[in-house]
Each structure stands twice: as structure tokens, then as C-alpha cells.
Design goal:
By secondary structure, the protein is of the alpha/beta class. The protein has two helices and eight strands. The longest helix is centred in the N-terminal third of the chain and has 12 residues. It is globular.
Length: about 120
């Protein structure tokens, strides 16, 4: 019996806005959207995806799970994400990654060149 990873659920105070932000940031597509929920994927038939759902409470502490991304050009990608509305986290910048926050304060890292 196979186990297929379909999506990660992201709790949000404004799921549609946050989902649209991540769709633009990741260059993914919206595959389903209602007034309260939005699902994005790399392509309509490609998984896993991200499903953004509403929650009444706001984010109160560091995420227990966050994505890391390795672009071809770390500096250019950090600049692009900042221009979309990401913010730098208060953590010190390591030479191998930059920690950013999405519009709702969820952490993610942009990695530098892979070490040999």
C-alpha cells in the first residue's frame, strides 16, 4: 500500500491572501479557492500542495516546521521575495541561509549554494 504526500495545511488569519502570496512567491498555481480556503500546487496535477485554512488565533511563536528553498541565486531570490512582501527575521544571518517571514510571520529559509 502506497502513501502519497498530498499537501501541507497552513493555518492562517487570511488564508486566501496568504495562499495567493505563496503562489506568487513559489510560482505555483491556485487549484481550488473559496471565500475561506485556497489550495496551491506546483502544477494543477502535481503534488504535494499547500492548503491554507482559517484559524481564529494568530501566530504566537516560532514555527515548528518551516520550508527551506535553494535557489540558483540566493541574493536575487531574497531580493525578489522581499519585494513581494516577505520580511527578514530577527535571527542572525548565517552565511549559508537567510531566514525570512511571510506576510503572516511564518518562517522560511532561502539557502545559499550547496556545500560540497
Amino acid at each position: 500500500m502506497a502513501l502519497e504526500w498530498e499537501q501541507i495545511i497552513v493555518d492562517s488569519s487570511d488564508p486566501v491572501a496568504l495562499g495567493r502570496w505563496w503562489a506568487e512567491a513559489l510560482r505555483w498555481v491556485v487549484v481550488d479557492e473559496s471565500e475561506e480556503v485556497i489550495e496551491i500546487r506546483p502544477a494543477p496535477d502535481q503534488m504535494p500542495g499547500l492548503l491554507f485554512v482559517p484559524v481564529p488565533e494568530g501566530k504566537t511563536s516560532k514555527n515548528r516546521l518551516h520550508p527551506d528553498f535553494r535557489p540558483d541565486d540566493q541574493e536575487a531570490e531574497v531580493a525578489r521575495l522581499l519585494s513581494l512582501g516577505a520580511r527578514r527575521a530577527d535571527t542572525a544571518r548565517d552565511e549559508h541561509w537567510v531566514t525570512l517571514l511571510d506576510p503572516e510571520g511564518n518562517e522560511f529559509c532561502v539557502l545559499g549554494e550547496r556545500r560540497s
